[in-house]
């Protein structure tokens, strides 16, 4: 609609111009009545602009009657907050024609209070996430299963991963990301990951495994770490040592940057690569894995989608997702496939 209005306005304006310019013997005349060619071109583009405008209006009407914007097809918005650096509007307010509130209000607003200890905050966070899975999510799945969920988060990695893990891949979910990059045209707004284009990124050539000096054979590996480095680099050797793991598999990208992985298509592709790596390589190479330990640097939307892919029966019963800060891992959340209870550990 905007394109149609712009095109029609520009060329209709040109059609009303008349005048002449002379410079060193060169004359330029603009007169819509002096030739039949120029008015024809102007009118043609004006008509094209009006056609685009009409098509845009028809598409909007169809969207509101039968598409995502219709009352029966709107997604249920769920907002997760645990970071205090920004205060974005709720998804339902940013996309009022596509998303309506899921009715859980501020249940997942988990920002740490100024007088709240780390342990109390983590206890409140894990309790709220478990309560969401046992109550709110059950009601949504029972009564509004035909509505997709719209997930947006401005939260710590363990919170994002756990929310995705609890929802898992059992229903349609649309992921949104709050853009904080330096591009003035895009920053400080929610991005629908379905609208972003893929950049052709892949983890295929950026996988490396480091082993503990105490491990002699692959059969001895029981605690496997995954260092998922999508936006910034971390330190798999440090992760191995600090947490006391048997092996760590580093998985990265060629171009690591904040805001490099908003595309839904690209997120699905990369998560598929990691799943294939786990199932076809790591789980076979290390057949006695009992625990998975994960650290991630990536967009919140990717982390939630990644967590949803880990709620599978053949995964280890102990999965720990760590908060990474200043090259340290001060705390983590503990999740287990097909269980709604989340625990935390302070290291």
Topology of helices and strands:
Blueprint (H helix, E strand, L loop, with lengths): L1 H13 L3 E6 L2 E6 L5 H29 L9 E7 L9 H4 L4 E3 L16 H26 L5 E6 L2 H11 L5 E7 L9 E4 L14 E5 L11 E7 L6 H8 L3 E6 L11 H22 L5 E7 L2 H9 L9 E5 L8 E5 L7 E4 L1
Parallel strand pairs: 3-4, 3-5, 5-6, 9-10, 9-11, 11-12
Antiparallel strand pairs: 1-2, 6-7, 8-10, 12-13, 13-14
Helix pairs in contact: 1-2, 4-5, 5-8
Model description:
The chain has 347 residues and is α/β, with parallel strands linked by helices. The protein folds into three domains: 2-65, no CATH class; 75-195; 207-346. It is 35% helix and 22% strand. The chain has eight helices and 14 strands. It has helices at residues 2-14, 37-65, 91-94, 118-143, 157-167, 236-243, 264-285, 300-308, and strands at 18-23, 26-31, 75-81, 99-101, 149-154, 173-179, 189-192, 207-211, 223-229, 247-252, 291-297, 318-322, 331-335, 343-346. The protein has a seven-stranded mixed sheet with strand order 8-10-9-11-12-13-14, sandwiched between helices. Helix 3 (91-94) links the parallel strand 3 and strand 4 (99-101). The relative contact order is 0.11. The mean pLDDT is 86.
């Amino acid at each position: 609609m905007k394109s149609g209005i712009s095109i029609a306005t520009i060329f209709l304006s040109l059609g009303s111009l008349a005048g002449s310019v002379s410079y060193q013997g060169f004359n330029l005349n603009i007169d819509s009545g002096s030739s039949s060619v120029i008015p024809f071109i102007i009118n043609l583009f004006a008509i094209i602009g009006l056609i685009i405008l009409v098509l845009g209006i028809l598409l909007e009407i169809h969207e509101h009657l039968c598409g995502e914007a219709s009352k029966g097809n709107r997604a249920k918005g769920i907002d997760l907050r645990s970071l205090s650096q920004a205060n974005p509007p709720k998804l339902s307010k940013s996309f009022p024609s596509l998303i309506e509130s899921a009715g859980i209000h501020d249940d997942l607003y988990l920002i740490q209070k100024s007088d709240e200890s780390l342990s109390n905050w983590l206890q409140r966070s894990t309790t709220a996430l478990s309560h969401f899975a046992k109550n709110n999510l059950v009601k949504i799945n029972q009564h509004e299963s035909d509505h997709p969920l719209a997930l947006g988060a401005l939260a710590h990695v363990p919170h994002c991963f756990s929310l995705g893990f609890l929802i898992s891949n059992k229903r349609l979910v649309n992921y949104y990301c709050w853009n904080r990059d330096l591009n003035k045209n895009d920053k400080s707004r929610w991005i629908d990951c379905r609208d972003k284009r893929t950049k052709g990124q892949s983890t295929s050539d950026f996988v490396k495994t480091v082993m503990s000096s105490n491990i002699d054979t692959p059969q001895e590996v029981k605690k496997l770490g995954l260092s998922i480095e999508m936006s910034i680099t971390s330190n798999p050797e440090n992760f191995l040592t600090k947490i006391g793991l048997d092996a760590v598999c580093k998985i990265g990208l060629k171009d690591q940057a904040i805001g490099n992985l908003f595309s839904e298509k690209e997120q699905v592709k990369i998560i598929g690569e990691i799943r294939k790596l786990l199932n076809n390589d790591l789980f076979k190479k290390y057949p006695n894995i009992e625990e998975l330990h994960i650290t991630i640097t990536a967009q919140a939307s990717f982390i939630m989608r990644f967590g949803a892919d880990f709620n599978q029966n053949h995964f280890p019963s102990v999965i720990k997702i760590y908060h990474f800060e200043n090259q340290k891992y001060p705390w983590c959340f503990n999740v287990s496939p097909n269980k709604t209870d989340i625990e935390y550990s302070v290291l």
